[in-house]
Design goal:
Length: 251
Amino acid sequence: MQIQTAGIVIRENNVGENDKYITILTSEHGTVEAYVKGARRKSSRLAASTGLFCYSSFQLFKSNSRFYVDQADIIQLFYDIRLDLLRLSIASYFCQVIYELKPDTDTCNQMLRLMLNSVHLLANTKKDSRIIKAVFELRAMAISGFCPNLIACRECSEFDKKMRFYILEGSLLCNDCASLGKQALDQTGFAQITQSVLSAMRHIIYSEPEKVFSFTLDDDNLTLLSEVCESYLLCQTDKTYRSLDFLKTMM
């Protein structure tokens, strides 16, 4: 069995002295794990094209239930991301998130587009990394079936009041409804958000892919957005990420 697909390498593990095992987020086949023979030799024609963050066109063949990389041609390398430790750490975090989410054939193309756009901005622009990180976290959750309901308050259906975001359920509750005291609801796990942050979250969830990064916030609101999106991802995936722990020591 052979397949031809484009994808970005999100994980690599060394095997033996010269080989490695990689995980590829593909455009059509979800995440695919493949063995790359001799990839760690300096003379290997597959060394660069199968490296972490590399977006390549892969030719894979399957033998005995395992995929092998037969050929890989670089589409985009994103090398400059390695020149900034902070942005490198963020990109590594994105890779770990995708590895845990394991996008299927229905969502992999959207996730690949999000990943490529995110890594491109990290590697080639000066856009605030907090925006890139927050967009990736919330949009990745939406693509993966954890889309929060950000349209209106879940009780009164008002949409322009001051809101609390319920991280566990991914829903909104306006301050008026929260203060009524008639609900037998756990009032913990809420984040008080500003109208600016709510507008940014709605933009991330509901805008077209090519516009998802096109917004600005002042520093305080951007810090709040970053905290809320990160908390939502961690709550919904119920995972810990070593790259995120390292990233926090830098930020």
